[in-house]
Amino acid sequence: MNGLSYLTPAGDSPWSTYLAQIDRVEPYLGRLTRWIDTLRRPKRALIVDVPIELDDGRVAHFEGFRVQHNLSRGPGKGGVRFHPDVTLEEVMALAAWMTIKNAAVNLPYGGAKGGVRVDPSALSRKELERLTRRYTSEIGLIIGPEKDIPAPDVNTNAQIMAWMMDTYSANVGATATGVVTGKPIPIGGSLGRVKATGRGVFTVGRETARRIGLDLAGARVVVQGFGNVGSVAAERFAAAGARVIAVQDHTGTVYREAGLDIAALQQHVNRSGGVAGAPGTETLDGESFWQLPCEILIPAALEGQITGARAQRIDARFVLEGANGPTTQQADQILAERGVMVVPDVIANAGGVTVSYFEWVQDFSSFFWTEDEINARLERIIGGAFSHVWDTAQQLGVPLRTAAFVVACTRVLEARELRGLYP
Ligand code: NAD
Hints:
This protein has 2 domains: 31-186, Leucine Dehydrogenase, chain A, domain 1 (Rossmann fold, 3-Layer(aba) Sandwich), CATH 3.40.50.10860; 196-343, Rossmann fold, CATH 3.40.50. The protein is built from 13 helices and 12 strands. The chain has helices spanning 14-25, 88-104, 125-139, 158-172, 193-211, 228-239, 262-272, 308-313, 329-337, 345-348, 351-365, 371-396, 400-419; strands spanning 44-53, 59-70, 76-83, 111-117, 148-152, 220-224, 243-249, 252-255, 282-284, 296-299, 318-320, 341-343.
C-alpha cells in the first residue's frame, strides 16, 4: 500500500492519511503527475541510537529520528518532538506535512521533522540536557543552517533549542545560530515568535470571515486549547470585537454568552493551571462544547479532536484549524457534506514557521527586526498565502484543504522538475 519495504502498512496511521491526501491532489497536477511519487516517499530518514548516562549511573538508550521528506525547494525545516509514542512512521508523516505547509506559504524550505521516543517528564533537567545534546550530535550529520533547521514541537522548547544550537556549534567549531529556530532572544531568537502561530490563526480567520461576508463584531468564537496557539487566537478575536463564548482545555470547559474576558481568563490559567473554575463563567460538560452554536470553531489543542460523531453536531460557519491534524478524514467528509467550511492547518497555523523563517533570515544577517516589522511581514505573507489558496479552491471547486495541497504540491514538483534528476 505504501510501497516502502521499511514500513508496516497500517489502516489509519498518519502516513496513510498523508498518502490519501496526495491521492486526492493527483488529478490536479497535470504534467507534474510524472513526479508525484517524489511526494510518496521521504528523501532521507535517519534513525539514531541516543545513549545517555542517567543520574543514578545507569545507561539508557532512546530511539531518535530525523526525516527529511523533501528538499527540492530549500533546506529542511520542521520541529523536534520528545514523546514516548514517537515512531519513524509518525515522524515521516509530520515531515511530509511540513513539506506541504512550507510550500503552501511559499517559504524557501523543504519539509523535515525529528523526534526522540522518550517521556521527558521522567528525566531530570541534566538528563534532558544530555539527551538533547547526544541526539543533536547524532543527527549533526544531516542538519545545519543550510541543510536542515529544527525547531520546537511537542515537549521541546526554547531551552532545548539553546542546547541544540550550542552542541551543533561546538561540533563545527563556530557559533551557528541559524541551525535551529525558536531559540531564546539573547542567542538569536526572534521577537514575535511566541505569538506568531495564534496571530496567523487570527489573520486567516479574519480573511475567511471577510470572504464569506461574516462580520467579526459580535461573531461567536469557540476555542479548544488555551495554550500558546489557542490563547493568542482568542485574544486577537476578542480584540477584533468577536465574542469568545467558550474555551475548553484539559481541565474543563468554560462558557459565557456575552463573551469571556480573555485577559482575566489568562490570569486565572496562570494562577491555577487551567480554565476550569474561572470567575464569572459557567461550566459546560466536555461533549456539549462541540455543539455550541457559533460562527467560528477553533480546535487548537490536539490532533484527532473533531471525530465523525462530533462533526455531525458542529454548528459553526467554519472550522479554523489552529492545531495540527485536529479533524479526522471521516469528519472532514461529514463537515463538507453539512456545508461547514474547514480552513486547514497547513495554512491556518503556518504563522509559527513563518516567523521561524524570519528568525533564520535575521540570524544569517545578524541584523534583528522590530516586533512591528515582524508582525507586518507575518500578516503580509500569511494573508497572501491564504488568498492564493482561497482563489485556487474557487477555481477548482474543491475544499480549501485540497486547494492548499494543490498549491503546495505544484510548487514542490515544479522545483523537482526544474532541478531534474541526478545523474
Ligand atoms: P500548548 O501545550 O501550549 O497548549 C495546548 C492546550 O491544549 C492547553 O491549553 C491544554 O490544556 C489543551 N489540551 C490538552 N489536552 C486537551 C484535551 N484532552 N482536551 C482539551 N484541551 C486539551 O500547545 P500549543 O503550542 O498551543 O499547540 C496546540 C496545537 O497547535 C498542537 O496541535 C500543535 O502541534 C499546534 N501548533 C503549534 C504551533 C506553535 O507555534 N506553538 C505551531 C503550529 C501548530
